């Protein structure tokens, strides 16, 4: 599932698994265009308006870019850490809603 104007997470994963050497020029061109559009949409969408999946994917992508590239296991760890963070945010929100008070922002 993806947010409006965003590239579906499963598409990103499947594109990443297939080496560029096995992709047609059409596939490579389409990926460049859709990746650029997705980066633009990610940049202008506030974190609080992103779905959990998009938030996790964006956080992992930022982490990878900040690190200058990393292994698949490091990237997977980034996804797990970002997912934990988003899950913790959701738990805090629900807890504050159930027990009263304002959720933390």
List keywords for this structure.
single chain; 105 residues; mainly alpha; elongated
Which regions contain 5 or more consecutive residues with pLDDT less than 50? none
Mean pLDDT comes to: 77
Strand content range: under 5%
Categorize the overall geometry: elongated
Question: What is the count of DSSP helices, taking H or I runs of 4+ residues?
Answer: 4
Question: How many separate structural domains?
Answer: 1
What is the ordering of alpha helices and beta strands?
Answer: HHHH
Distance between the ends: 24 Å
Rg (C-alpha, Å): 16 Å
Helicity, as a percent range: 55-70%
- Biggest beta-sheet profile: none
Structural class: mainly alpha
Tally the beta strands: 0
Region (Disordered): 1-75
InterPro entries: HSP9_HSP12
Pfam family, one: HSP9_HSP12
Biased composition (Basic and acidic residues): 1-21
């Amino acid at each position: 599932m993806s947010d409006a104007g965003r590239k579906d997470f499963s598409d990103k994963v499947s594109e990443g698994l297939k080496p560029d050497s096995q992709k047609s020029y059409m596939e490579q061109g389409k990926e460049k265009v859709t990746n650029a559009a997705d980066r633009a949409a990610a940049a202008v969408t506030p974190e609080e308006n992103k779905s959990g999946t998009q938030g996790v994917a964006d956080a992992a992508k930022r982490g990878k870019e900040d690190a200058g590239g990393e292994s698949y296991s490091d990237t997977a760890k980034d996804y797990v850490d970002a997912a934990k963070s988003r899950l913790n945010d959701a738990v805090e929100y629900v807890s504050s809603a159930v027990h009263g008070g304002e959720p933390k922002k």
